[in-house]
């Protein structure tokens, strides 16, 4: 997993270059921002597998049902991807698209959390 300092430095270099590019060639500044974001996300993929393995091991040790951990991780992933996409849309001066993406992300997160909601309903029904 790359150092947070290296990731921050890469992001700052892209941001500074984008500031200089924006007045002359705004479309290239946007492409630079997208490329920088893609680089940062791809840099984290290697460590993501290790993190998921650790989460799986912790859920096994805690006795959690794997069917409940999956929706939690999916919902978190949806929130992170939606937030990144919405911010990129805002950077491209597409605020309406960013809001629509956030709304879609919320609906997708609720859909991904349905197994958790069913488990809560089952628990409530068993208590009554």
Q: What features would you describe in this structure?
A:
The chain is mainly α and 128 residues long. It has 2 domains: 1-62; 65-128. 88% of the residues lie in helices and 0% in strands. It has 5 helices and no strands. It has helices spanning 4-21, 26-62, 66-91, 95-112, 114-127. α1 packs antiparallel against α2, α3 (66-91) packs antiparallel against α4 and α3 (66-91) packs across α5. The radius of gyration is 19 Å and the shape is elongated. The protein starts with a helix and ends with a helix.
Provide a short characterization of the protein structure.
The protein has 128 residues and is mainly alpha-helical. It has helices spanning 4-21, 26-62, 66-91, 95-112, 114-127. It is 88% helix and 0% strand.
Number of helices: 5
Please provide the ordered H/E string of secondary-structure elements: HHHHH
Please outline the major beta sheet: none
Question: In percent terms, what proportion of residues is strand?
Answer: under 5%
Give the uncertain stretches in residue-range form: none
Radius of gyration: 19 Å
Structural class: mainly alpha
Number of domains: 2
Defining traits:
5 helices, elongated, mainly alpha, 128 residues
List the helices and strands and how they pair.
Elements (H helix, E strand, L loop, with lengths): L3 H18 L4 H37 L3 H26 L3 H18 L1 H14 L1
Helix pairs in contact: 1-2, 2-3, 3-4, 3-5
